[in-house]
Amino acid sequence: MTVHVGGRDLSLSNLGKVLYPETGFTKAEVIDYYTRIAPVMLPHLRGRPLTVKRYPNGVDGAFFFEKNAPAHTPGWIRTVTLPVPGSSKGRETIDFPVVEDLPTLVYFANLAALELHVPMWRVDDDGAAQPPDTLVFDLDPGEPATIVECCLVAQLIRGELEAEGITSWPKTSGGKGLQLYAPWEGGHPSDYAKAIARRLEKAHPDAVVSVMARKARPGKVFIDWSQNNPAKTTVAPYSLRARERPTASTPLTWQEVEDCTDPGDLVLTSSDVLSRVEHQGDLFSEVAK
């Protein structure tokens, strides 16, 4: 069917296809979610080159990451050509799409781009990459640790940042982990994030690990400071995740982090997120600035 969105005509297809079999959540519902969450999500996407994770046959089927704008991308969608040194596909540059309006967001939702990932930096009006404007800590629990332990480590990181006058905001990853964002100025933040991770690992060796090796993670929370590498992306605030249910990466209050005692406390689906935004607005609004 053809729909008119924000001054653009979009052709939508396979709207009845079930993309989340466990709940029967369809492609139409994915598009509906992204349409309704757009007012608070778009500020977090604007100016940031997009990487999508597409699931054309649903979350139980094959998926693929896509950075380069598809060949059939409409001309009205903004793209920026950026260098990609060391590309696994041998490319020198990639034409990244940038989501800056509702029609573009709906276009990618129609491609079954369930997950939207962006870097911690933006491009300027001419498409040139700018220095990172966001610091991120990606907290990944090693079983039997869960998001409950991530919440405890998040509070430790918060304390480290506050001691230096930096305010941070938490959000779920939409999966089993937690992420902290903070505004950043002054060059690349990887070394700064690594120093905090190493310091906390030394102070809390039974709870924190700062190295990526899987064998070091069981029962601990891995502080992935490397997400601040300019070549990496992190799931965008409010993005759906390809889990059994249509969970989303959801901004939280610090009170919710402090009160978390069960992993189920912070499992938030698309309907939960829409309800939260209706009553609380964008808890990540300061991050978008």
Short synopsis of the structure:
The protein has 289 residues and is of the alpha+beta class.
Can you walk me through this structure?
This protein has 289 residues and is of the alpha+beta class. The protein has helices at residues 27-45, 102-110, 147-162, 190-203, 254-259, 270-280, 285-288; strands at residues 2-5, 8-11, 18-20, 25-26, 51-54, 64-66, 79-83, 93-97, 113-118, 134-141, 169-172, 178-183, 208-209, 221-224, 234-235. The chain has a five-stranded mixed β-sheet with strand order 11-12-10-14-13, covered by helices on one side. A hairpin with a 5-residue loop joins strand 11 (169-172) and strand 12. The model has no long low-confidence stretch (mean pLDDT 96).
Keywords:
15 strands, 27% helix, four-stranded antiparallel sheet, 21% strand, alpha+beta, single chain, 7 helices, 289 residues
End-to-end C-alpha gap: 36 Å
Strand content: 15-25%
Order of helices and strands: EEEEHEEEEHEEHEEHEEEHHH
Alpha-carbon Rg, integer: 19 Å
Instruction: Count every helix, treating DSSP H or I runs of 4 or more residues as helices.
Output: 7
Order of adjacent strands in the largest pleated sheet: 11-12-10-14-13
Rounded mean pLDDT score: 96
Protein name: DNA ligase D polymerase domain-containing protein
Domain DNA ligase D polymerase: 26-284
Organism: Sinosporangium siamense
